[in-house]
Design a protein that fits this description.
The complex is a heterodimer. Chain A is of the alpha/beta class. Chain A is 33% helix and 22% strand. In chain A, the strands form 7 sheets. A 7-stranded mixed sheet of chain A has the order 17-20-21-16-15-22-23, sandwiched between helices. Chain B has a single domain (2-361), classed as ANL, N-terminal domain (Rossmann fold). Chain B is built from 9 helices and 13 strands. The chains are: A alpha/beta, B alpha/beta.
Amino acid sequence: MIKIPILRWGEPYHSLESDKVVHFATGEVMAEVSQANGALVSRDMRHAQRARDVLREIPIRDILAKAKLAGEYYTSADLPLGDGTQSPDQFVKMQSATTGLPEHMCRFNMEKNQFVLANMEKILDALTRGLDLEVLSRGHGIESRGVPISYQAQSPVLGLVLPSNSPGVHTLWLPIIPMQIGLVLKPGPQEPWTPYRMAAAFMKAGIPPQAIAIYPGAGEVGAAVLQHCPRSLIFGGTATVEQYKGNPRVQAHGPGFSKILLGDDVVDDWEKYIDIMVDSVFVNSGRGCINCSGIWASRHTEKIAEALAARMGPVEPLPPEHPKAGLAAFTVKNVAESVWAMIERDMKSPGTKHMTEKYGSRLVSMDRCSYLRPTVVHCDSPQEPIAKAEYMFPFCTVVKCPQDQMLSSMGPTLVCSAITHDKKWQRQLIDATHIDRLNLGPVPTIKLNWLQPHEGSIVDFLFRARAYQEA
Amino acid sequence: MSDNRATPEQIKAAKDKLDVHLREVIAWHFSPETGTPFWLEKAKSFKFDPLKDIKTYEDLKLFGHFEDEWLRGGPVRRWVPKGYANKPWYVFETGGTTGIPKSRVVMDDFRIDYEMFSHTLPDEYFPKGSNWLMLGPSGPRRLRLAVEHMAQYRGGISFCVDLDPRWVIKIIKKGWMEHLKAYQDHVIDQAMTILTAGHDVKCMFTTPKLLDALAKRLEDQGKTLKDVGITGIFCGGTEMTSQWIRFTIEEYMSPGMYIAPTYGNTLMGLAAADMPVAKDGYKIAYYAPEPRAVVEVVDFDDYDKVVPYGSEGRVQLTTLTKEFFVPRFMERDEGVRELPTTKYPWDGVSGVKPFREFAATTTVGVY
């Protein structure tokens, strides 16, 4: 069993308190992770500026090369982890064992992280709209057309309160080090693996250890990160998002409520889009905020729901090492049971029909974990209580709604794939401020273009454009 | 700790003393002349006679468990023993952010408890005659008066701050984190003013969170607790872990300073602990002020059964004073049962933390 310390700006610190991270199926202890206390985080923040300073000593072009190298180490090297080392295969097995995600999905997420690191130059070029990256380092510069510009870092570090159940989110913080901003990471209790492995890869590639801090711990540690980092990202539920709404220091990432809308002009051909719908709901076991949780159309909705149920309903849990395992386990006791109880309660509404019922029980409770099999629910109208629900497994509603009422009824939507050629409606979709990422046409919601911002540009969050003049 | 273990004779003597004290307290609270109205009324429903059947500590099981809900609302006089009816009484409250708080009436207990605790403090670090900073909750709480009394008992004067924990809980529940920070700053501002005004403060009471905040503020100004004259810290009010106290000792305290962790609440006196040290893994082992209060660690599934030494269980508290009788109250904490020592020849408790069944729903450590 590996003992994983706190990393205080790269320095290992063994706490007197530790948390055992266990295999969800066997109960085997995979690691003992040192737990920080809030005051330790608070005290360490006196060195936050040093994190940016040491990174600014390395030109951004060199950091980009190191990031690419880090990506290669991350996917292929044996890297130090606590009092031992970890191979890429061990990483996959450990992450799967504690998060419940099938191994092939863990491997896919690993490759996704490497892709982002390998393409960081292009990603930053896109996110900064072609800015000379040295401007971020210097704080000011002159555009090629002769206009003076200045971008001021709003924080020397970015704090991250990370989740346990969605290893896909880590791509969001990979551009931070290349922008010469330090990292303060609070890993999710079941997923310490990615933050530690990525930190080890960065350090092996030549990123100064003083630029990265990792503080596993309880709620007070997350609160300390948010309190003491001038800019932070937090991942949580709707309540978390509501709590930090309007707080300029915190970007809260919660449920996506991502949707596919079928326009009246294409809905009669709905069968052509079933693959896109299934992929959007099912890929990555439905855990991401970009997974589709609602498919909206004005007609044929029951048939669409039936077809989706026929495709996904029969899927059963498979062992995590099985190459075809499509479902992630719920590893925290009673969570799946509570989720299913909520769904059952909402399905009692007369306008709601459970379309996957005939494919057997959705809740599969095992000794140490549970699964929820894919669930499709038909709703007669957007007013049904379950119409806009989102859960951490392949779950979707198919909602009957006139096209002209969709935008006003659907609520906040992280990714909206609208399949239509109706120019007037496309215009309204483009203008809708409650849609974050808009795909026009048959694009699965889970297909991201890495050159586009996600829930606001991380560059805008960390850097402020301002006036700067020299006499 | 092992070289400090109590002998069987010491343990027996302490137990005998406890039983004698217990009989006195029972006689007082249940006698028609001196008894407490609440208990006299309650006794009507008992299938036993407290005056005849309660002879030893073990007999307290006949009472079942004290329910702290009984302390909510009035008339508060039902808790005042008839034998003390004409004496001046205080009322201290606990909880009360919303709804009716729990109340405890007190005459002299807080003075006696804190005087007893005072004798556990080493004079080298808590010099007699030196002044104190009371950096903790104000308002209808025992702490403010008790710490002030202890400072006076030791020949000093206590400087206090305003801190309303009920408002702090409301801020947390509303999610107003900026306000929370501002309120904490406001409290620390008051402490900084006292510590830098030439009052010769050497000792302080504070809570773990406020000590963190004060030490950080001082560090931000290039100073330490020692620099502003503090040599002794009496810490309590909320739970503290071994990791927290190790961090505090290693990173915020200096040689020549002492921290005394305590465990207690309005219902009991103050359980004391020696300053934790590295060789014991910074274990914090608390010992109640027997015979006035008894702390036991009992089985999670059978509260009548004390767990073996070194095992975890729920904390059970009994208060035995002539002012207040609380038999077998199940605390909202759990911990590990500790061996009797020569200094405290009765059971102690270490590793105190919120009881696992309440931990997820309780807002703890607000000040």
